Amino acid sequence: MNQETREQMNVVIVGHVDHGKSTLIGRLLADTGSLPDGKLEAVKENCRKTSKPFEYAFLLDALKDEQSQGITIDTARCFFKSETRDYIIIDAPGHIEFLKNMITGAARAEAAMLVIDAHEGIKENSKRHGYMMSFLGIKNITVCVNKMDMVDYDEKIFEDIKKEYSEFLDEINLIPLHFIPISARDGENMTETSSMMPWYKGVNVLDALDYFKKALPNYAKDLRFPIQDIYKFTSQGDDRRIFAGRVESGSIRKGDDVVFLPSGKKSKVTSVEGFNISETNEAFAGQSSGVCLDTQIYLRPGEIMCRADQRLAHVSRKIKVNIFWMGKQPFVKNKNYKLKIATTQVPVVLSEIISVLDASELSSIANKSQIDRHDVAECVLETLKPITFDDVNHIAETGRFVVVDNYEIAGGGIIIAPVFEGASQLTEHIKKREFSWERSDITPEKRGFKYQHKSALIVITGETNVGKIDIAKALEEELFKLGKFTYFLGISNEFLTRGANANDKTINKLQHLQQLGELAHVMTDSGLILITSVSDVDVYEIEMLKSLNRPNKTFVVNVGDNQLAGEGVDLQLGEKEKSDVGVRKIVDLLLKSILVDPDYSI
Amino acid sequence: MQHMTKLEHLEAQSIYILREAYREFKSLVMLWSIGKDSTVLAWLARKAFFGHLPIPFVHIDTNFKIPEMIEYRDRLALEWKVNMIVGQNTDALKLKNTFPDGKVDRIACCKALKTEALKHTLAGDWPRKRLNLEKGEYEIDKNTEPYTGVIVGVRADEEGSRSKERYFSPRDLNNDWDIGDQPPELWNQFKTDFAPGTHLRIHPLLDWTELNIWEYIEKENIPITSLYFDKGEGKRYRSLGCYPCTTPVESTAKNVAEIVEELRTGKFTNIAERSGRAQDKEDGGGLETLRADGYM
């Protein structure tokens, strides 16, 4: 077989602690001659010196702590070849304490071998790990019933475990390819058929590996191309504006009409880019690529490019999900977390817990108000901005997410469906705010009469360095001269969100706009014409700002070309326009709407 | 439509990781040891960024590197327009506190000339030299800002502790690595949120094997230093380091294709790749000890 086109497969070995996962791998490596020369002898010698009985697991447990404690702490990868394939065998820890390490290992795998101790039988983590395989979408599973030597190679014990565990797997829609009785320590049914268990007619462990099937690539599905970044290396004399990302499913080629979600912006692919590649006209699922477009559209990383002629991804702010929690702190309502899906990052809250499951028993835990470490739950999440995603059964790559709590990835989940009904977190918040707000006796009408105008928030938007602040200040001065009650709030994103993670632009921006919205609401409530500027906002963010400022009026004045592309904009100014002309236009707009004769009625 | 090959998968994943790192971290550098792995990494960066190298490269010059390595470094840096930064433990060299000078053992020498030099070069409190691409000369770099993210070309198949690495691996202020409590990584979601002061290692080559590296060098025709090839003496280097602590292996492979063939036929199947690196053999867990302390 051609070496370069040989298949490679990642297989994770899972199961309860001490059921012999590392021993299985160690033995497999030793029996297939995959260990470096002298490694076996060196480990044996080390055991002799420290008066420990030799175990094959020591070949895997490379860390000093692991060897001294005799358990696997972290996932290890070993490389091993069969006749037909190259394998990366992932040794996952079985101790509950290290569940997140096990998940890390398993999430990289395409197939799993689940090890159960014949002597101890099915334990809680045998089930929990089985459940996690189903959760992670691993369908290729073989079960090894290990330590058969400790039960005198008794067929009945094997059959009982097989029956009980098959029933469990059946409940979570997993059908194992094989059940193999083995003794990893003694090498029975590992690489050769065991003579100790003549009653067993099936395959050995080595053969079972080769029976795992590679999943078909996502070529034929709908295009999902999450934008990872947008590059323009102008300083190096390169004028290409490249939308970089990995094709997660489907394919893209030159000339395709595309739609970006959630913004809904449309364009056409003019080229598929790459470096040192021969074929530059198309890219397929799995490839890290990049495209250039025929229109100058403004997007942020995180949008997903879909093909206009195919089924589009879902866009929603509420999602029904299954989640498992690894965080030290529980997952609770009324707290802000961060959701990462494909290349998007967005604030998220837990809005409803539908059910919590004990994954080791598949039993529901009733009436839980929080999701604790190692729980699996069905719940509804709400993001602050709409996200783009798929049902995990349609396209897994865009149907999986993680939740970050205080810098740590604390949960992982899969999306079952979008949720469209119900009020959003933001409207709920505004409702509560209005309820608890003790209104002044001076009504907006009285203030309007006094100041000769209604209050308003004027937001000047546009890319950085298009003269937004100049216009804002000139406007303030003009209105001030006209005797209006006005104020320019020149506060930068950086200042309002200081202390937040500086890497996190999207989240910073949203936090900034939330604070700005609250602040604007107070100031416009006092009857003020508040003027401020924000850079690089999208339609959802402007909508959020307007919502927070309600019932007071918001005007959006946009300078130049940017991602708003006219949506939600009350007045559009050219980038080259002088600020006095801009100010004139804004004042004209205000004259029509708020600078009216005080005798108006509401 | 054909299946992606193993190498195409590895390439796509490494590029994905490089782009994640570049988007999420501003003070980022890539460590270039001049060896085959970090040179493949440099090549992958050119792929990820469509021919450009927006991330600076850092090389730690121990002054005991095989001379061809330095010559090769500067030639490639000029050709690829690398933003090249070089750091060195000049004090230890001046005081001759090195293993070749007979004053300290191998591990202590590695710590001083590599680990310490790297820590301080990244922190910016020791002088950094930057290659002026127009003049072709090194100048003292005025920028002394610390680099908090380091992209490193380690591979899981090299050695036990490296087999347990994450793609994105946090280190604390002292560069300490808490091996027992590493962040989870799921479905290409890596830990990219950090408390201030966290240092980060990024490992795009974790899933590659030694053979994959050579197959890829062959496929992409990546220029590689000739120290890896036999020049008629029946010897070549399999892993590059400082000359006092690195010995060549017996091999008659004269070019990349012959190395690929040699590795495929299993000549070295049972010999550790770093077996020519003397420091690994000190103290039973030499490399784990070094790495927990900040060695790459």
Q: H/E order of the elements of chain B?
A: HEHEHEHHEEEEEHEEHH
In the CATH hierarchy, the architecture of the largest domain in chain A is: 3-Layer(aba) Sandwich
How many structural domains of chain A? 4
* Oligomeric assembly: heterodimer
Radius of gyration of chain B: 18 Å
Task: Compose a concise summary of this entry.
By secondary structure, chain A is an alpha/beta fold. Helix content of chain A is 26%, strand content 29%.
Descriptive labels:
heterodimer, A: 602 residues, alpha/beta, Rossmann fold, Elongation Factor Tu (Ef-tu), domain 3, 4 domains, six-stranded antiparallel beta barrel, disordered C terminus, B: 296 residues, two-stranded antiparallel sheet, 8 helices, 10 strands
Can you walk me through this structure?
The complex is a heterodimer of chains A (602) and B (296). Chain A has 14 helices and 26 strands. Chain A is of the alpha/beta class and 602 residues long. Chain A has a 6-stranded mixed β-sheet with strand order 2-3-1-4-5-6, sandwiched between helices. The radius of gyration of chain A is 31 Å and the shape is elongated. Chain B folds into 2 domains: 6-208 and 284-292, Rossmann fold (3-Layer(aba) Sandwich), CATH 3.40.50.620; 225-279, no CATH class. Helix content of chain B is 32%, strand content 12%. The radius of gyration of chain B is 18 Å and the shape is globular. At the A-B interface, strand 2, helix 4, strand 7, strand 8 and strand 20 of A face helix 1, helix 2 and helix 6 of B.
